[in-house]
Amino acid sequence: MVTRLYTLRRKLQNNRFEIAGGKSGMKVSWQVTGIRQDVYALAHPLQVEQDKPANERGYYLNPVELGYPESRGIAMQASSLERNTHPVLPKARNR
Question: Rounded to two decimals, what is the model's pTM?
């Protein structure tokens, strides 16, 4: 099986672009990305990855989907702290 690659024939101009390659009439999917330059985006740049605060380490946003009990959720841990109780939970398993 020969894979036919599509290439960009003409760059994005006036909200349009052209692709080339492949067989005529084939379906093609694409994604156009960009870098935001608006005032809000410049004032609040995305932080792709950041360390968890110490009190959230060992807890998960979605613990059940990862095979942990719901009590290992960050929301559960936060509500326990609000009630001034200390949850007694096992340490996180290494994966």
Answer: 0.41
